[in-house]
Amino acid sequence: MTDLHDLTRRLQKSNDSRIVLLVADGLGGLPLEPGGKTELETARTPHLDALAARGSLGLSIPVLPGITPGSGPGHLGLFGYDPLRYQIGRGVLEGLGIDFDLGPDDVAIRGNFCTLDESGNIADRRAGRISTEIARPLCEKLDQIEIPGVEVFVRCVKEYRLVVVFRAPDLGGEVDDTDPQRTGVPPLDPHPRDDASKRTAEVAAEFLRQARERLAEDAPANFLTMRGIAKRPAIPTCEEVYGLRSAAIAVYPMYRGLARLVGMDVLDAGQTLDDQCARLKAAWNDHDFFFMHFKYTDSTGEDGNFEKKVQKIEEVDAALPQITNLNPTVLIVTGDHSTPAKMRSHSWHPVPTLLAAENCRFDRVDAFGEAQCKTGSLGRFEAKYLMSLALAHAGRLEKFGA
Fold first, then answer.
1. Average confidence (pLDDT) per 10 residues, the chain, 402 residues
2. Domain that holds residue 165
3. Is residue 336 within 8 Å of residue 71, measured between CB atoms?
4. Helix (H/G/I), strand (E/B), else coil: 345
5. What is the dihedral of CA 10, 14, 19, 25, to 10 degrees?
6. Quick count: other Cβ atoms within 10 Å of Cβ 12?
7. Same domain, 387 and 284
8. Are the C-beta atoms of residues 369 and 357 closer than 8 Å to each other?
9. pTM (2 decimals)?
């Protein structure tokens, strides 16, 4: 059976179109009370509403109905890669995101500094979201850990996030996370999921033993958890499967890593949405496809801060004219998953999606929100088909068949 990438390889064609995919991370939400409005519906979004009036709306399903995605699967789906086929460890994405050159003998791990209480239970999974300035010397301390037969690398990422890389022959990449995803319980032990990863689990356990000793006096960041323990996989590039010169404009390392994994040029994004929009304008003639990422709609949802998430959505709306003024052929605004403040976590709920293009089927709505997307002409669709929709609206796919 021909898969979607085989088809786009055969049908792709070139033109001078420009496609922009603006991802407000964790965009989808829930009302706090029955009959209320979601964060997106509550926000004042005149520019998004105007765009919706001349676009097509729908709800995208990141993986499958009822399945809650992580950020990796969520973004891979948006890039048109089946997240069930391409399962990428978060450690790989974080490592690539900070330009760490991952080789065939490397196992990469996303680390989170955390706070342990006197009983050894996790009191705060993110160590109070310590600053990068605090985290950097802690990473340097952990980078001194020595394990016989294994090279150990520890690199600061951003705030409480770090990357740990183990380099040695014959290390497997199938080890369970040590983050229990809740507080009041101790961190989990690293458990291998196959025989090839037993040695990796042993190395991880020894690293964590030494880390606990070295960080004992460094509260709130007196320990770390491990997530996304994995090796770098083989994956086709956007240029191969879509014929696109693609660029990523993202601030957070993980999303830069995702983009690099699929062959996008990762551009300097500054630190603010205005910085990102300025970078988009400067690179406009150099690429066909631009992925822009905004993190804070997700982090405010994870914090359970409904009002703050509303404010962050309004920030996205305020920046939108800087993108529309460039007259992209196709402009898509969506999220990689839903992060309702009510749940304080990612969720399985379908994600609001807006596609605006000259030849789209206008829904003639007056707002961009979950309620409007529910009745939009895009319907409910798996996110992995968003790229073929973008290519079609940009005139970049030939007709299939006679």
1. 85 96 98 96 98 97 96 94 90 88 93 97 96 96 97 95 96 96 96 96 98 96 96 92 97 89 92 96 97 96 97 98 98 98 97 97 94 96 97 97 87
2. 101-230
3. yes
4. coil
5. 30
6. 17
7. yes
8. no
9. 0.82
